[in-house]
From TrEMBL, chain A:
It comes from Python bivittatus (Burmese python). It comes from the Eukaryota. The gene is CTU2. This is Cytoplasmic tRNA 2-thiolation protein 2. Plays a central role in 2-thiolation of mcm(5)S(2)U at tRNA wobble positions of tRNA(Lys), tRNA(Glu) and tRNA(Gln). May act by forming a heterodimer with CTU1/ATPBD3 that ligates sulfur from thiocarboxylated URM1 onto the uridine of tRNAs at wobble position. One of its GO terms (molecular function) is tRNA binding. Belongs to the CTU2/NCS2 family. The lineage of its organism: Eukaryota, Metazoa, Chordata, Craniata, Vertebrata.
Automatic annotation (TrEMBL), chain B:
Residues 12-195 form the tRNA(Ile)-lysidine/2-thiocytidine synthase N-terminal domain. Gene3D superfamilies: HUPs. This is Cytoplasmic tRNA 2-thiolation protein 1. One of its GO terms (molecular function) is transferase activity. Pfam families: ATP_bind_3, zn-ribbon_14.
Amino acid sequence: MLGKNRCIYPGEKVLLAFSGGPTSSSMLRQVQEGLNREAAKKLRFKPGIIYIDEGAVCGRTLDEREKTCRQVEAILQASGFPYHLVFLEEVFDLPASVLNSLSHRPADQAHSYKEAVADFTRWRQQCEKKEGAATSLEDRLAECSLQGCAWKERLAVLDTSSFPASHTELSRLFGAVKSLTAKEELLQTLRTHLILHVARRNGYSKVMVGDSCTRVSVKLLTNLCLGRGAFLAMDTGFSDSRHGDILILRPMREYPAKEIIFYNYLFGVPTIFTPGLGTKASDRASIHLLIESFLCKLQSEFPSTVSTVYRTGEKLSAAPREVDSGVPTAPAQCLLCLCPLDTNVEDGSSLQSMLLSEQLCPRPPAENCCETGRTQAGCCGRPPVVGDSSQLLPLLCYGCRLTVKELVSVQGKVCATRRAPASADAKVCSCSQDWAQGKVARSLSHHTFTRRLSASDAGLR
Amino acid sequence: MNAIMGTIKEKGQDSTVLAHVLRLLNERHGYGLRLLLLSVDEGIAGYRDDSLAAVRRSRGRLGLPLHVVSYQELYGWSMDRIVRHTGSRNNCTFCGVFRRQALDRGAVLLGADKIATGHNADDVAETILMNFLRGDVGRLQRCAEILTGGEGALPRCKPLKHAYEKEIVLYAYFQGLDYFSTECVYAPNAYRGHVRALLKDLEAIRPSSVADLVHSGERLAVRKDVRLPVQGTCRRCGYFSSQPLCKACVLLEGLNRGLPKLAIGKTNRLQKALLEGEKPRADLETEENSRVGRTIDF
Ligand SMILES: [Zn+2]
Ligand SMILES: [Zn+2]
Ligand SMILES: [Zn+2]
């Protein structure tokens, strides 16, 4: 698969995203095999591995997480590749620049493979020159994980009060999201940000993700239902260039999950099971789980289902439907998923009608939380709860808006329930609202939004 | 003058509400449309009788001219006769293909310029899912559009595209509109049933799912290098078709030759056989039978 596509240059650093699951474990093994092959078929890149511990949002204790990390480390060590063990909490340490995709290297388009390789080597030499000077202490994360060793200290630190902000911020963020659907999306986003960051800090220019054919089909249908129709090709395609400097590859996407499990069994590839967000939940707890079980059931009745969905996905384009001739500038990117925005309002579109009905009958926002002050400005003379998000929403794609809206709308509810026992006390109400507006949005904005927001502010002025 | 055809389709409340709303807006805003109601009588005893009665009553209320075309007139076969002929296994193939064409054929007959169908948001979302699951990217790309070139000679529009099914039912209820609602008696195919159930589950998890799906359908883009079937016209009836013969003509031919099963599924070889004027070979039919269960037929 990799040889066929010729997208990795000799000597290039490639980061393998490893989760312990069957597909990424199999991917790791196949890369190992590929590096040991005889000269003609040999893979020539330099792999590294990243493992992200998501235990914090899956309700696991530190002990459990430590145990898993030890298992993971054993596998990663055995591979002989450099590895990075990262905790999801560390996403809050990321600099705001994570989402600024660096400018493209001049290598990517139109050239022949040979020219591209030459370009790449030139580029790498430049980078190496820079590297000597630029090792700052600002990023503790990248440094200690370079050796892959310091994770125990970093995990311990998550426990003590010396590092309190991240842990509580993360659980507060996820606690504020009502539905498992939005949680899954949020987790996906944070995970990607972390991977990108580690890749950039350590000079990886490609990331390999272990999505099987089955996974790709589930993702296609799930994302279709989440309003991400415009991005299906990007979200599931073999190579995903939306991040500019870092290319995401899905080398496993042709293999059905069954084949992968069989391969692992045959070659004794070890896997690790870690409970995810929805492990204990029912089929209907999230759109992700619903689609997965739907496809699985349908597949047992019509064995061509998964492959048909996969092939449908193959026929989709990453470029938006029509390029509006009137607008020459590149469309803005979504702040969270970095896809080109799909929110231009077209006549007769679903988005248009949705905005219209929101306008005609706005959802009763937090104004309800004080019976007295039903002013237009919002409750207690403060800006309405949506204030924060209304700044944010225009910067997001349709799908990410749905996720972020939930972040905010749940605040209204929290506010309302808090009011119930002490409805007379307007102060309590405004406090909770304060929390609603500030913390969640802030904790998100902390690492990602501020920069973009200020950038767009500057543009306005 | 632009004439728009309000059509009456299977799920009665949609077309009743469509006719009501179009008439109301036409009068209020002076669109200058000449509205006609077209209803298709598939010839299913009991089922259509009730719904046609409802259609007649609403025509009375709406004051719009109603035209009924029957399968018998259009194809020479009623659904009941088709079912008797084929057994009740694949009749929804017939009822889908025939109904789609019946609207066009009927509308052309009445001299209409445009067809307005009562497809609501739920229908569109369901169709998007169906087309995705069956891998029909050509339809997938078209089906979310509010105005399409149509599968037949006339352009089609879906004025209710953004209205949820629930809203339409409520509207009909509060307007006191008389409608007849039932599923096709010849049970709709299992696959569509699954998809419909999925849509309901999705809505239960995230209420905006229907609109989200429609948005997805509107925005997804098919790769430029994917070859989509070229739309031509049927050599026999002139209806739009990607094959030399349209599906209805192939199905009809199968019926008339007494080999209805041939037409369902492997149409390509039958196409060829029909065009070359030779008799379909007997082994085709056995092959057809062996394929049952492996292929999904919509
Ligand atoms: Zn987005
Ligand atoms: Zn039917
Ligand atoms: Zn024909």
